[in-house]
Give the backbone structure.
Amino acid sequence: MKTKKRLLSILLSLVMVLGLMPGMSLTVYASETWGTNTTIDSTRTINGGVTVNDNITLTINNGVTLTVKEGISGNNTLTVTGGGRLIVYGSDGNDGGDDGDGGDGVSGNVTVNSGLITVTGGSGRRGGESEQGHGGDGGDGGCGVSGNVTVNSGSITVTGGSGGFGGDSIEAEDGSDGNAGRAVTGTISYTVTYKVVGGTWSNGSSADKTETVQDGSQPASVPTGMKASEGYTGGSWDTDPANATINEAKTFTYTFTAKPAATVTKAPTAKSLTYTGSAQELVTAGEASGGTMQYTIGDNTTKAPTAGWDTSIPTAANVGTYYVWYKAKGDGDHIDSAPGVVSVTIKESTSAHTHTFKLVEAKEPTCTEDGYDEHYECPECGAWFEDRSGHHQLSVTEKAEITKKATGHKWDSGVVTKEATYDETGIKTYTCSVCGETKEETIPKKTRSYSNDSDNDSSDSGSSGGGSRGKSGSFSTQSLDVNGNAFGGPSAGHQPDSGMPVSDRGGNWGSMSNNWSYTKSDGTLAKNEWLNLEYNGHTYWYFFDGNSTMQTDWLNYNGATYYFVPDMDGWRGRMATGWHQIGEKWYYFEPTAGAYQGVMYRGAVTPDGHIVGADGAWNGVGTTPESSAQTGTTANGT
């Protein structure tokens, strides 16, 4: 007897060891209860059922299979994730008894986040036999899932259990066959995901969008109004979601096409230059396809400058080495080419020349002039030297290192030196707190009101300057601009000094509850468009949204960020350029007239040497930027 017990113990231990070895599966015959989230990291079979608490997450690791043969019960919602496989069978009914109905595969709701799920309801069994009485009815099949199914990712297959056959009777009637179980008692829904590549949704965001769609239905919230980012064009769905019938978790992607890069067809070459005392072009002109050649001078041959690019060929006068960067600036159908660089040296004149050395004492920068550290200069050729003996002539980079940029004016908040009237503009004077220099800014003429009183009825009418009045007194439309000044448009044939055409002439501004709109000269409201409008000899950019409301504050448009002055200080609605303090932070907007005017700098060095981060805000290092005057677009882009 002892020998048999010892042998049985050894066999049981061997079974347990084999069941736990890597690559082996473990079969558990007892039922289990899961009170918390559970992770399955090796293949298992549970012949008994599983009871779980409400809202349990079951994680089945990738490559692992969990089989449950007596159903999962007790849950409100069972969430399955991890990428593995789950197989669930409902318990089968018993033959010939009162409990012949099959059990549900899963009692409750199922959410699938990943993995391959198969659920089958238990089978109903045959009814009992009877020699004289009525044969027993067959058991009903169990449901696959007695609740709702939601598939976010992965897949699920659900089948109801089969019904049992009725029992036989020799003298009386045979029993009735059982009913097959339903696959799912609730609804089956799938998550539909929308992605955008190379652009944004209509609200400027590029984050994925999702919606839940019932099995066999079509999506109801397909995004529209997608916008291409800078450097992209076109755009289409990989599959049109509006016409798709959903029977699985599905992802639809809207992709914009990247514009091709402009090409430098003929690169500029360095000129062989000798000092003459006058400025000389450093390189030959390059040629481009799909864009225009641009140039700038950098500090080295490894990092291209972010500012200072221009179509003019760079020039220099002094002896030294210069790094001329070039690129093809893309047109509307192309992006910029990758930049290239050419090193150019202006050599000393071969004619006899002996440097003389004049001490230049250190000078601190002022608001308008650069400063520099102490050094020596040759009065004849302009070369800079480190010491009196002229042993080391400073290179272009070294000269830049000892040069201190002008700080720019620091203007106060300004004082009104001439009040505006209904007939004349006023003047606001600003004073620099450092050097005392002043500047003046025009204050627009005051606005006359054309509202109505409550004792006027709807039959009253009147106009002034093209305006109209109604009973409520809440709406006015006159030949006034957005700052309340008379606006009739420039005379026919007049060309504003921006060198760019005015978008519209002779239109009217109107306001509703301080939201401004613009009726163009053809009688239509400006809507979803930019307009370049003239005022006081300058032109200003405005943007009108889909509701025909003039934009104020921030605007994300085609992947770029703009700012429109929100304050009613005479500049409301006009696109910002140059430096602006917005809240507690400073931002820089491209001032140069052209396709990129008004675009906020991000992660770059501004033309005046300040650094802005990825969010566009100045990093606070160095002198405070000088706020830009609102002068509109002019011939030189100011």
